[in-house]
Design goal:
Layout lengths: L1 H25 L4 H29 L15 H16 L2 H4 L10 H17 L12 H7 L8 H21 L1 H31 L10 H4 L5 H4 L18
Helix pairs in contact: 1-2, 7-8
């Protein structure tokens, strides 16, 4: 866990911080002002998240288990823990070393390095080519969210991106250029604020106990909720090689 936290998490947060600074540069925000805001926001959010986390562990029964109420099953935390076991306890050699079950996945490093060059080559002579709009680093990078992300998350993402970055951009380019980023931030902020109000105002006091309607049950009918397996292990069989 310590290796993953200080190795992966630190580098990831650093990249996100650099991306925010780059966005502020595009928006012509003074660098010192932006850096100060980022530092203050980081300190406030860190203290707030630690406080909320401790409160959740003390007040939400069965948290981070399949029996947790309101979906508090901690999918991202489970992935983080499983990843720390994979890279720290078991070790990558048993999974990706010579003769290991996932050895072919190592070729993905080569594919990721060569594929963007091929896309650039396909669209280099025509600015209107569809290949100029393909960004493989973004596409490949988004796959790092699987798991815990599912097909439902990616389908909604694709639909929203198509509506805003294709339809609205073509039909109302001025509106798109001026308000898309603001609308995105407003939707994120509104969702977070709405979740806090709904949970503490209605769910936590118990006012929603026994409340059911189509919208609270329909999502439980798909494989995203039921965790359907692509292949099932037959009785007596096992997953993985005979010897590690």
């Amino acid at each position: 866990m310590v290796f993953v936290t200080y190795g992966y998490i630190t580098s990831t947060q650093g990249l996100k911080f650099a991306a925010d600074l780059k966005l502020g540069h595009y928006m012509k925000i003074p660098p010192r002002t932006l850096f100060a805001v980022q530092v203050v926001a980081t300190i406030v959010s860190s203290i707030t998240q630690i406080g909320v986390l401790n409160w959740m562990f003390a007040n939400i029964p069965n948290i981070c288990t399949p029996q947790a109420i309101n979906g508090f099953t901690c999918p991202i935390a489970r992935v983080h823990f499983n990843g720390s076991i994979l890279w720290g306890v078991v070790g990558p050699h048993r999974f990706f070393g010579p003769g290991a079950i996932y050895r072919p996945l190592v070729w993905a490093f080569l594919v990721g390095a060569i594929a963007p060059i091929g896309v650039w080559w396909m669209g280099r002579g025509n600015r209107k080519s569809v290949w100029t709009k393909v960004n493989l680093p973004v596409l490949f990078g988004s796959l790092s969210w699987i798991p815990p992300a599912t097909g439902l998350n990616f389908s909604v993402w694709a639909l929203v991106c198509f509506v805003f970055n294709y339809i609205i951009r073509r039909r109302a380019s001025a509106w798109w250029g001026k308000y898309t980023m603001t609308l995105s931030a407003a939707l994120d902020s509104g969702l977070a604020f709405g979740l806090v109000v709904i949970f503490f105002g209605f769910v936590y006091p118990g006012w929603m106990d026994g409340f059911h309607w189509w919208g609270t049950e329909v999502f439980k009918q798909g494989c995203d909720w039921m965790a359907c397996s692509y292949r099932s292990v037959k009785p007596g069989d096992k997953f993985g090689p005979d010897k590690w």
